[in-house]
Design a protein that fits this description.
The protein contains three helices and four strands; from the N terminus they run H-E-H-E-E-E-H. It is of the alpha+beta class. Strands 1, 2, 3 and 4 form a four-stranded antiparallel beta sheet that branches.
Amino acid sequence: MERFIKKSTLPVILEVEPPEDELKQRRIRFYERLGFRLANYKYLQPSLRAGNSNFPLCIMSYPDLLTDSQFKFIKNQLYREVYNVPAVYPNSI
């Protein structure tokens, strides 16, 4: 992971579960030790199966904490390119 993030010329983005219990908090601290920053924005992973609900997650970024406009841009990219769903903020960057 360290080699990958050091070589990347773009920000590195992770989806992680909210820090609701000790295991999830430890996982977030692991990524923070690598330099990732936990964004303070609400994020829902789109349902992976028809009929299921969206799943609450958090976004972590490396090397910098995301601004509001960066978060909206990243969220749109994830929705379109990873989950194949329409953009949430069509007028974002």
